[in-house]
Amino acid sequence: MDILSSRIILRPADYAVTLAFYRDGLQLAIAREYPAGTVFFAGQSLIEVAAHGGSGDSSSFQGAIWLQVRDVSDAATELALKGIALDRPPVEEPWGLIEMWVRDPDGVPIVLVEVPRLHPLRRDSRWSTE
Known about the structure:
Layout: E1 8-10, H1 15-25, E2 30-34, E3 37-42, E4 45-50, E5 65-68, H2 72-81, E6 88-92, E7 98-103, E8 109-114
Parallel strand pairs: 1-4, 5-8
Antiparallel strand pairs: 2-3, 3-4, 6-7, 7-8
């Protein structure tokens, strides 16, 4: 099987509220719009907010959306100014990433992650002597 692309599809209880959250709150860039939905760029992935095919109930999504940001403290300030509540403020985790958690209007967990300068995810293993 060849996977050519992927995206997360959300079917929110209130399309307009969730659309505004991802577009205006998180300020994700729009990849494309169609009559029943909007697809956002999310780094190397896409998040589609669909106004069709859902039950109208809040999401039962059991995962989380992982979004890497340059500076999680700046992101926290921006979200606070927009009235978006933090589930958890920025914390350096035992695995070395700085993570902050919020939820979308349907309760979908979103982790905003900063990869510190010296973290192994930033190391170019091609030149490592270890």
